[in-house]
């Protein structure tokens, strides 16, 4: 149908890839009432991203993808991506401050959008590909990159407003080291659990009364086990009744 055509269309695939690469610029431009297509003016970046997109999806025998599937190279690329995340956050905060002086919320929002735009704009990107998954909305259930980018936007906004007593380059260094180490550790251990999970659980239980999910899972397991036992009992009782009826017929 139409979904299959949109998914298989190279134009839709290319456009969705550009949204992931330049989603931060598009989203921050929309927030600041600037042209969202301004990223297209940087022809070198578009050409580089398009070349990588073509090699990943259309390279013969998937040679390009297999090369980057090599773990050391993947770790290197992931580390470089986290370094660029820091620069995107600081650039977004500086740009927002130039438009709205000392507007904390605007600086945090624009820095967050610039650093994690690919994740925040993912629902629109899914529509471009003909896929709709509302449960993957980052505002409903944030992924680790979106969470850590929000924390970085708050920290750099406080530092930019001189409320955080630390030099900008020192904060950038510490934040980038944390990003790289956490990302590499998650890749090596193949863990999708956020490092902030224990803190989030404690704060959620303290301020919002949120219950831990394992207890719910246990409760559901107990309920399912009880339900299965009830079903077993009812089936055994029906079997006994059937046996009694057959014996009564024989005696008759």
TrEMBL record:
Metal-binding listed as a keyword: no
Subcellular location: Endoplasmic reticulum membrane
One annotated GO molecular function: potassium channel activity
One Pfam family, short name: TRIC
Compositionally skewed regions (Basic residues) per UniProt: 242-252
The protein's assembly and partners: Homotrimer; conformation seems to be controled by binding to diacylglycerol (DAG).
Catalytic activity of the protein: K(+)(in) = K(+)(out)
Listed transmembrane segments: 14-32, 39-57
Lineage top rank: taxon: Eukaryota
Keywords: Endoplasmic reticulum, Ion channel, Ion transport, Membrane, Potassium, Potassium channel, Potassium transport, Transmembrane, Transmembrane helix, Transport
The keyword 4Fe-4S is assigned to this record: no
Topology of the protein relative to the lipid bilayer: Multi-pass membrane protein
Family: Belongs to the TMEM38 family.
GO cellular component, one term: endoplasmic reticulum membrane
Region of interest (Disordered), residue spans: 216-252
Role, per record: Intracellular monovalent cation channel required for maintenance of rapid intracellular calcium release. Acts as a potassium counter-ion channel that functions in synchronization with calcium release from intracellular stores. Activated by increased cytosolic Ca(2+) levels.
Name of this chain's protein: Trimeric intracellular cation channel type B
Biased composition (Polar residues): 223-233
């Amino acid at each position: 149908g139409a979904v299959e055509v949109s998914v298989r269309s190279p134009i839709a695939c290319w456009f969705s890839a550009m949204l992931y690469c330049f989603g931060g610029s598009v989203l921050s431009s929309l927030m600041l009432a600037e042209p969202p297509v301004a990223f297209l003016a940087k022809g070198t970046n578009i050409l580089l991203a398009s070349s990588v997109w073509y090699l990943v999806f259309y390279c013969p025998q998937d040679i390009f993808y297999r090369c980057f599937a090599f773990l050391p190279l993947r770790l290197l690329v992931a580390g470089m991506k986290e370094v660029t995340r820091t620069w995107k956050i600081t650039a977004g905060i500086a740009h927002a401050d130039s438009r709205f002086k000392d507007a904390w919320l605007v600086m945090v929002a624009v820095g967050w959008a610039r650093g994690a735009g690919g994740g925040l704009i993912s629902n629109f990107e899914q529509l471009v590909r003909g896929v709709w998954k509302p449960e993957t909305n980052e505002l409903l259930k944030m992924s680790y990159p979106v969470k850590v980018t929000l924390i970085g936007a708050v920290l750099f906004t406080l530092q930019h407003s001189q409320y955080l007593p630390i030099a900008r380059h020192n904060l950038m260094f510490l934040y980038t080291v944390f990003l790289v180490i956490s990302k590499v550790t998650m890749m090596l251990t193949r863990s999708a659990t956020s490092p902030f999970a224990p803190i989030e659980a404690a704060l959620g239980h303290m301020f919002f009364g949120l219950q831990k999910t394992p207890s719910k899972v246990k409760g559901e397991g107990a309920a399912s086990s009880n339900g299965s036992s009830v079903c077993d009992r009812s089936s055994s009782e029906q079997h006994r009744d059937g046996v009694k009826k057959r014996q009564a017929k024989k005696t008759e």
